[in-house]
Amino acid sequence: MSETHPTLALGFARVLLGRAVSARFTGDAPWLDALLPLLDPFPAVSEGPVPAPAVEILASADGTQWLVRASGDEAVFDAPVEVARQVEWGLFAAAVYDAPLPLCLHAGAVARDGGVLLLPAESGAGKTTLTLALAARGWLPLTDDLCPLDERDGAMVALPCPRCCHVSHASQAALAARGVALDGPVGGVAEYYRPLAWGQSAPLRWIVAPRYEAGAPLAIEPLSQAATAALILHGSFTHAGRGGRDQWPAALAIGREVRGYRLTYSDLAAAFDAIDAIARGAPP
Amino acid sequence: MASDLAGPLTRRADVPMEVMPDGSALLYDPLTDQGHVLTPLGALVWDMCDGTMSADQLVAEVTAALPDVPDLIPTVTALIDEFARLDLLAGSAVI
């Protein structure tokens, strides 16, 4: 591997979210065939010191099982694809923890017309489907679940994170029905897809916290500025040595500057219309 | 009685409040690393928990200041009780 560093006997290092992270492994590594395509858009570390490995993968003596250590957890896998999933997650968890950014949010994000719509939500709220489906209305995804934010020229700017999206079979069907094509499964890993095109960094303009509920009527609730700031604070991943108190100024700034809404929906077309209306400044 | 809390209500000194331009406000509790959203009325009540008034006195003060606002007593009582439930008040005792 070209990215193998002298300090990593067998290993690799990538720059994720502006932070170099590395993994070290022993023995045969058939899981690399699945993992490396997942990491493809992220550059290898080409200069400077490589940090201590955030993930370790230890092969069993007979080469049929792998112990993966990441973020203080360890688990044994016997399928290379499962090793790849776990290592990819471990590398991103380490990068988020150390990311040199004011905020990293658990949120989808899409860009259009030079502005970004942030979609913060818990897992299972439907943000991956909505994030990718908005391509049908000209919105390009920056991320489906991990949105880095940086302050540039006094504005909060959302950055792309071209990590693979975890797209369930149901979401794949919903997206196909809207004519939204995806690239994948990446590395042959089931349910790991990328959009055909990514959006560019742009200032945060709109915040919509989506919630899919089967059969629910469309509901849009404007949020107060404090509720919008709280949404950002609660959706922020914890950084090394930085809790909510350190993220508080950035969350408050966003709450003051960007209008927030809660959106409950069961029909994607209705959600699209509501989001387009919010983007036009005329929420229904 | 407005609330079961005894004695003057004192907000915790380590919990900052930021009032936003629209009047809503956000508290940050460093012990739980949680933010709490307040309405403008909630921000007023929090500000009045300065150690000079009991719950009853605070409710009377707010209702006197906002005579046209309906259902104020239960709303203010609920706010005070919520502050206490979230341990945002210093040394509150329930009687």
Account of the protein in words:
The complex is a heterodimer of chains A (284) and B (95). Chain A has 7 helices and 17 strands. Chain A is an alpha+beta fold and 284 residues long. The N and C termini of chain A lie far apart (54 Å). The N terminus of chain A is likely disordered. Chain B is an alpha+beta fold and 95 residues long. Helix content of chain B is 36%, strand content 18%. Chain B contains 3 helices and 5 strands, in the order ββββαααβ. Chain B has a 3-stranded antiparallel sheet. In chain B, strands 1-5 form a two-stranded antiparallel sheet. In chain B, helix 1 packs across helix 3 and helix 2 packs across helix 3. Chain B starts with a strand and ends with a strand. The mean pLDDT of chain B is 90. At the A-B interface, helix 5 and helix 6 of A face strand 3 and strand 4 of B.
Average pLDDT metric of chain B: 90
Structural class of chain A: alpha+beta
Can you give the helix content of chain A as a percent range?
A: 25-40%
Order of helices and strands of chain A: EEHEEEHEEEHEEEEHEEEEHHEH
Concise overview:
The complex is a heterodimer of chains A (284) and B (95). Chain A has 284 residues and is of the alpha+beta class.
Which helices and strands occur, and which strands form pairs?
The complex is a heterodimer of chains A (284) and B (95).
Chain A: E1 11-16, E2 19-25, H1 32-39, E3 55-59, E4 66-70, E5 73-77, H2 80-98, E6 103-105, E7 107-112, E8 115-120, H3 127-133, E9 140-143, E10 147-152, E11 155-158, E12 165-166, H4 169-177, E13 182-183, E14 192-195, E15 202-212, E16 219-222, H5 225-234, H6 244-257, E17 259-265, H7 268-279
Parallel strand pairs in A: 2-3, 8-15, 15-17
Antiparallel strand pairs in A: 1-2, 3-4, 4-5, 6-10, 7-8, 7-9, 10-11, 11-15, 12-14, 13-14, 16-17
Helix pairs in contact in A: 1-2, 3-4, 5-6
Chain B: E1 5-6, E2 17-19, E3 25-29, E4 34-38, H1 40-48, H2 55-65, H3 72-85, E5 93-94
Antiparallel strand pairs in B: 1-5, 2-3, 3-4
Helix pairs in contact in B: 1-3, 2-3
